[in-house]
Structure formats: C-alpha cells, structure tokens
C-alpha cells in the first residue's frame, strides 16, 4: 500500500480551472474539521520577490501552528503564480524561496496538517513541479498549455456531462469559435445551453445541445464578429443580409464593426480560395481536405502574423475554416477581391455620409450579392 502523500498539489495553465478544482478539494478536506480556526487560506499571488517571501513565511507559520483544540488543521496556499516562467519566477531569490517551500513541505505531517497548494501557470521544466509530481497528491488540470484546444474541448464536455447534457456534432466546435479560449465563458455558456435543452417546455428533444441552439443562444464574443450579418452576407442571400443589417441598425449599432467583421471573413475566404485554386486543399464533407499539408507548406511565409488573425489563415480553427468554406458556394477569387474593395470604399463613404450608415451598407450588399 503506497504511503500517504504529505500534501496536495493542483496546477495547470488556467487559473480558473485550477482554482475551481482547488476549492472543491479544500471543501472536501475541511468538511471533517469542525473548528473554523483550524482552516486557513493563504494568498500565494506575488507581484515581486518580496511578496513571494511574505507568502512563503505566512505559509511556514500556518503549517507550524498547532490546532488550539487538538485535531487536524487544513492549510490552503492558493493562487500561487511564482512557479511560472516570469521575471519574478526566474529571480534567484524566488528560486531560493521555492527551495525553502520544498523543505517546509518535506516536513509536513499529513496526520496533523492537510496541505493544499494550487498554482497557475506553472513552468513544469523547473525542479519543484517535478518534485511535487513525484511526492504530492498531484493533479494537472486541463493538460499542458501546448494542448490548449484539446483542454477547452475537455472543459466543455466535462461540464456538459456533469449537467446531464451532451453536444451534438458540430455544436461544441461552433461554441468554441463564438466564445473563444475563455474557460469561464465556456463553462457558463455550457451551463446555459444545458439548462435550455433540459427545459420541459423546450422542444429540444432531450438534453442534447444542438448546433442550432449554439447559433441562436451563444453570443459571438471571440473576435467581436457580427455573426448574423456576416453569415447572411456570405450565404449569398440578399434579403437575409438586408434584414440582418436592419436589425443591427434598429438597435443602435454602428457600421464600422460590421464592415470589419465582413472584411475579416472575406480575408479568410480569399486565402481559402487561393489554396483551393492552387490545388493545395479541397472542400470536402469534413472541412478542408489537405489543410495540414498546406499549413506545413505555407505557414512559414506568414512572417510577423503568428497570433490569431484573419490575415493568417493558419491561425484559424480548421473546423471553423471548413464551416465557412462549406456553408455556401465559395465565391470566385475575383468576387472576393471585389468584395474587399467595396468594403474599403464603404469606410470612406460612411465618413462622407455619417447619418446614412445603413444605406451605405445596404448599397454594398446589393452591389456584391445582386451582381
């Protein structure tokens, strides 16, 4: 039978996920301790080396304190950030303090004091995380930061499962595209959608989150994209586009963000069309066939555009690209270039006609879609 671990160590790239699991673990540890003075929480967030020293010293004092009425104590060192690859985390003084922290933990008697440490982010190349993985009750939440996409999928799937719901094909991918890499929003949107499909008055047909539910209920906050107007425009449906524009301006919207959204979508489709015409990719039932090969061949050419941007096709979600390209007939390269020119001209036109912004965009839609 393996020996009991001296302490519990929970870490990961995302502070929200780490903190949530840490709270659950602390509540479980504290449940058997009736004396509220035997439960102590210490803030491990440090902006400089001096604050690291203060946190470690407070932790040492808490661990060495004996319960007033006897029995076990529980100490939680939470929100530790000085184990990351940062200026503070790399400082020699911090590394010495981390060695002190390790010595404190080596001397902990778990029968007297239950210790919980939560840290995010963590540089797992350092000696302390490696030591903690071998000597603690260790949990890595959400996987490594290199697998952030898979981690976000796992967060949504786990949350839906805990609520008795599941995602239909393409629903989860669409939610991640609209919400972005924000775990808090992913959790809250999943809870909202699961509540909706579990509503007895709903016609959802069981606790299954469909793609249509996400399209209707989830706001597109990832890039400020005005989803309906962009969807309508690139579907080629003129009446839908005009109606979407009217709804946008009726609620007091401005033309500039709509134009930006249309330009972003158009830039992406320009690059997709170029790859299709070159024979590097093909639009198939599962998205862009051959995309990984095209990425290996061309991604190095996008110098200085490595962050997620519509200027670099290869920073986009591959599922999202396939969805954009396959949702309607892909326009010709000439049509996409003309669209971009029209949208550039629209920016200039609304400066001349600031009180006629809806009319300017309606004229653009008619010229582009009725051609």
Q: Summarize this, please?
A:
This protein is of the alpha/beta class and 371 residues long.
Distance between the termini: 76 Å
User: Which second-level CATH architecture of the largest domain applies?
Assistant: Up-down Bundle
Q: What is the fold-level CATH name, i.e. the topology of the largest domain?
A: Zinc Finger, Delta Prime, domain 3
Mean pLDDT: 85
Low-confidence stretches: 201-205
Topology pattern, helix = H, strand = E = EHEHEHHEHEHEHHEHHHHEEHHHH
Assembly state here? single chain
Q: What fraction of the residues are assigned to beta strands by DSSP?
A: 5-15%
Shape: elongated
Which CATH C-level class of the largest domain is it? Mainly Alpha
Can you characterise this structure?
- The chain has 371 residues and is α/β, with parallel strands linked by helices.
- The protein has three domains: 7-141, 3-Layer(aba) Sandwich (Rossmann fold), CATH 3.40.50.300; 148-217, Helicase, Ruva Protein, domain 3; 227-369, Zinc Finger, Delta Prime, domain 3 (Up-down Bundle), CATH 1.20.272.
- Helices cover 54% and strands 11% of the residues.
- The protein contains 16 helices and nine strands.
- It has a five-stranded parallel sheet, sandwiched between helices. A two-stranded parallel sheet has the order 6-7.
- Helix 2 (49-64) links the parallel strand 2 and strand 3 (73-80).
- Helix 2 packs parallel to helix 4 (92-106) and helix 15 (333-352) packs antiparallel against helix 16.
- The longest helix has 24 residues, at 255-278.
């Amino acid at each position: 039978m393996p020996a009991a671990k001296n302490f519990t160590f929970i870490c990961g790239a995302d502070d929200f996920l780490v903190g949530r699991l840490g709270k659950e673990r602390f509540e479980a540890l504290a449940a058997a301790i009736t004396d509220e003075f035997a439960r102590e929480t210490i803030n491990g967030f440090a902006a400089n080396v001096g604050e690291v020293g203060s946190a470690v010293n407070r932790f040492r004092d808490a661990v060495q304190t004996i319960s007033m009425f006897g029995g076990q104590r529980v100490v939680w060192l939470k929100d530790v950030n000085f184990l990351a690859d940062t200026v503070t985390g790399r400082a020699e003084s911090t590394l010495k303090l981390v060695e002190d922290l390790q010595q404190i933990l080596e001397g902990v008697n778990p029968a007297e004091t239950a210790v919980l440490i939560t840290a995010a982010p963590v540089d797992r190349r350092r000696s302390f995380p490696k030591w903690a993985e071998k000597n603690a009750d260790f949990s890595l939440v959400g996987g490594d930061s290199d697998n952030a996409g898979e981690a976000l999928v796992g967060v949504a799937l786990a949350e839906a499962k805990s609520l008795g719901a599941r995602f239909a094909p393409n629903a989860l991918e669409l939610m991640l595209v609209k919400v972005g890499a924000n775990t808090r929003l992913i959790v809250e949107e999943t809870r909202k959608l699961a509540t909706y499909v579990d509503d007895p008055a709903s016609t959802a047909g069981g606790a299954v989150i469909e793609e249509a539910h996400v399209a209707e209920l989830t706001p597109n906050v990832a890039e400020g994209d005005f989803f309906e107007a962009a969807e309508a425009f690139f579907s080629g449906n003129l009446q839908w586009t005009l109606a979407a524009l009217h709804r946008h301006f009726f609620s007091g919207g401005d033309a500039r963000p709509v134009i930006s959204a249309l330009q972003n979508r158009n830039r992406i489709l320009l690059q997709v069309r170029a790859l299709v015409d070159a024979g590097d990719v093909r639009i198939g039932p599962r998205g862009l066939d051959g995309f990984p090969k095209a990425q290996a061949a061309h991604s190095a050419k996008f110098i200085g555009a490595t962050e997620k941007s519509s200027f670099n096709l290869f920073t986009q979600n591959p599922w999202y690209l396939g969805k954009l390209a396959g949702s309607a007939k892909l326009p010709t390269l000439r049509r996409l270039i003309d669209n971009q020119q029209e949208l550039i001209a629209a920016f200039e036109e609304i400066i001349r006609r600031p009180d006629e912004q809806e009319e300017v965009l309606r004229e653009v839609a008619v010229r582009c879609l009725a051609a």
